[in-house]
Amino acid sequence: MAFNEDASCQKRWIKGMPSFFRSAFGVFPKRLPCPAARRSIASFVCFAFMIAEFGMTISNDSTIALSNSTELISMNSTDYIVLKTALAWLHEGKRMAIATVVQTWGSSPRPVGSWLAIREDGQVVGSVSGGCVEDDLIRRVQTEILTRNTPELVVYGVSKEEAARFGLPCGGTLRLLVEPRPEQDILDSILEKIESHQIILRRVNLGSGKSTLHLGTREDGFSLSESEMQTSYGPRWRMFVIGAGQLSLYVANFALAADFDVVVIDPREEYTEGLSQEGIQFIKGMPDDVMQELGIDSHTAIVALTHDPKIDDLALIDALQSKAFYIGTLGSYTNTIKRKERLREINLSTEQLDRLHGPVGLSIGALTPPEIAVSVMAEVIAVKYGKQT
C-alpha cells in the first residue's frame, strides 16, 4: 500500500505550523495547500515493511518452514519463566534438559517453540503438551536422555493408538527436540537480549548440540532441517499506545501480559504519572514523529486513546497508510464518523479508513478503565489471530 501523496503533504504542512496555530485549528481544515512539500515527499519515510509469506512446506533438503503469524516464535511469558528457572538450576550445578516443540500434526495443545525444562530429580517447569506426554518424557529424560551428550528427536502420537494412549487430542502428533546439555552461556545471552528488548536467533547443531546466536528480526521464523534447528526469541508483537493516562496504563499492562512489547507515546508531560514501570516504554513526543522513527510493521498494533484530534489524527494519517495489523481509536460512534470525515478530506481512501476500529474494543458493555482495556485487548488479539478483521 503506497503512501497517499496528498495526505502526506498536507500532514507535513500542518506539522510545519506554529503550535498555537495547530491548537487553534483543532481539527483539519477542509482544503490545505501543498506547495514545495511535493518536491520533498521522497524524504518521507515509507513504513510498509514487506513480510515474507511462510507456508508449511517440506523442501528437497528436508527443511520445514513453519508459517503465518500464529507460528512465529516469540519468548512468551511462559517460556520466559522456563528460561529463568533453567538458568537458576544450571547456576546451582543441577543437571537438566530442555525440550522444544519443533513440529505438530493435527490438533496440538502447545504451539511450535514451546519449552519444557526437566531437572534430574524430575522437577519440571513449562509444558510441551498441556500434560499429555510430560510424565513419559520425564521418565525418558531421567533414564536415557541425560546420559547422552547430543540432542534427541522424540515423537509422540505417530499412530492413533499411541495418540490415544498419551491423550493427544484428535489424533495429534508431537515432535520434540530434547537437549540434555543446554549451554549456560548461551541461555544467559538469550535472557540478556530479550530483557533489553532485542530479538535473538539461535541455531542448534543437531549433531553436536552446540548453539550459535545471531541478531534476529521480527520476520525471522522457525525452521528445522536434518542438521539444524533455528528459532528466535524476543518481543515479536508490539503495541503503540497513543496517549498516556489511566486507561492507557491498563491497556499497557494487559498488553504486556499478552506478550506485546509496549510503547506509550504522548507529548504531554502531565499525563505520565504511573507509567514509569518495568516493561512499559514511555516516549515523550508527537506520536506520528515517534512512530516514524521506530517504524511500523505488520506485527504492530496502534491504539489511540487521547480523545484529542490534534494528537490522534496526525498519528492516524501515518497508521492507516502503514502495515499495522490493528488500528483503533477511542471515541463514540458519532465521533468516529466525524474523525473519518476529517481524514477523508485529506484524501485517505475508503479502504484505508475501513481499517480503523472505532469505537476501539469489542462491545461487551465495558464502563470502567480496566473493563475498557479488557475489551481493547480482546479485539486486538482477535484481529491478531484472524478471528476478526
Question: If you had to describe this structure to a student in words, what would you say it looks like?
Answer:
It is built from twelve helices and 17 strands. The chain is an alpha/beta fold and 389 residues long. It has two domains: 57-233, no CATH class; 237-384, 3-Layer(aba) Sandwich (Rossmann fold), CATH 3.40.50.720. Strands 1-2-10-11-8-9 form a six-stranded antiparallel sheet, with helices on one face. The longest helix has 16 residues, at 369-384. The two termini are 17 Å apart.
Tag the structure with descriptive keywords.
single chain; 389 residues; alpha/beta; Rossmann fold; 2 domains; 12 helices; 32% helix
Show unreliable segments: 1-5, 12-73
Q: State the separation between the terminal residues, measured CA to CA.
A: 17 Å
Helix fraction, binned, reads: 25-40%
Question: Gyration radius, to the nearest Å?
Answer: 24 Å
The tally of structural domains comes to 2
**Average pLDDT metric:** 77
Number of strands: 17
What structural class should be given to the helix and strand makeup? alpha/beta
Strand order of the largest sheet: 1-2-10-11-8-9
Strand content: 15-25%
How would a crystallographer describe the biggest sheet?
6 strands, antiparallel
Order of helices and strands: HHEEHEEEHEHEHEEEEEHEEHEHEHHEH
Taken from the alpha-carbon principal axes, the silhouette is elongated
Helix count? Answer: 12
